[in-house]
Amino acid sequence: MIVPKHVAIIMDGNGRWANKRKLPRSFGHREGVNALKRIVKYCGNEGLEILTVYAFSTENWQRPAKEVHYLLKLMEETFSIEINELIQQGVCIKILGDLSTLSAAHRRIWEAAEAKTQDNNRLYLNVAFNYGGRNEITNAARKIAQKVKSGGLSVEQITEEEFAKYLYTGDIADPDLIIRTGGEYRMSNFLLWQSAYSEWYFTDVLWPDFDVSEFKKALSCYSKRHRRYGRI
Predict the structure, then answer these.
(1) To bridge 166 with a disulfide, which of 9, 58, 140, 150 should be the other Cys (CB 3.0-4.6 Å)?
(2) What is the Cβ-side half-sphere exposure of residue 121, based on CA atoms within 13 angstroms?
(3) Which residues contact 115 (CB under 8 A, 6 or more apart)?
(4) CA 65 to CA 70: how far, in whole Å?
(5) Active-site entry in 12, 130, 135, 174
(6) 6-133+175-223 maps to which CATH number?
């Protein structure tokens, strides 16, 4: 089976999972963390190189304040308590997103997670937090404009390859496969630039129920795809 180098996941369906069981949405988010732990462990064991997950979008701030607060606390707890296990698993963490608007305390947690795992190379785990694809592209364009204005870059030097350097992903390879759980068929402002030639896999399975067997289904489906990149 052809295994993708880089898999990205839109982890959708936590709230609906909880609603179906007449539980608070917070229960769904916590089960979603357990699902992520399963997939991270599997990827590390099976040699998949890069995993990118959509944890919190720039649009998620519009949710009820109580839920946003819980999500922030859950992420804080996850990457504080679980950090030693991630280190043991050889996971290298990178945060993708605009951290400038977060509190100093939250920034310290993310920065510590990156610093403590920076030498690991068994699995590169990119966590898209306070992430929005349009915001990412806008920020990249702004940085390039400033560099051109200062004389550090000419207009002629702005190529696709050069532009990509200013994205949150930098020199990270584009995702080969993007999985969206929860039965929705949208990109939801996720990796808009990087997904230009990614293969997509949609499933009705809600994220907390997404286990290794479901992940294998997605990988199996990907292995049957023929990626032409515009060629015949």
Answers:
(1) 140
(2) 1
(3) none
(4) 9
(5) 12
(6) 3.40.1180.10
Handedness of CA 182, 10, 189, 129 (dihedral sign): positive
- Domains of the chain, residue spans: 6-133+175-223
Residue indicated by tokens 């030498």: 119
HSE toward the beta carbon, residue 56, CA cutoff 13 A: 22
Name residue, tokens 């936590």. 14
Cβ–Cβ contacts within 10 Å for residue 203, how many? 20
Task: Return d(Cα 72, Cα 61) in angstroms, integer.
Answer: 10
Return d(Cα 169, Cα 179) in angstroms, integer: 18
Residues 6+ apart with CB under 8 A from 69: none
Mean pLDDT score, 74-80: 88
Q: Is 60 an active-site residue?
A: yes
Residue tagged active-site, from 14, 19, 34, 60: 60
Closest CA to 26 of 72, 62, 59, 60: 72
Residue 230 reports pLDDT greater than 80: no
Query: What type of residue is 60?
Result: N
Q: What value, to the nearest 5°, has the Cα angle with vertex 74 and ends 176 and 48?
A: 25
pLDDT digits (tens, 9 = 90+) for 2-20: 889 999 999 999 999 999 9
As given in the structure block, the two tokens for residue 157 are 């030097």
**How confident is the model over 47-73, as a mean pLDDT?**
95
Q: Report pLDDT digits (tens) over 121-157.
A: 999 999 999 999 999 999 999 999 999 999 999 999 9
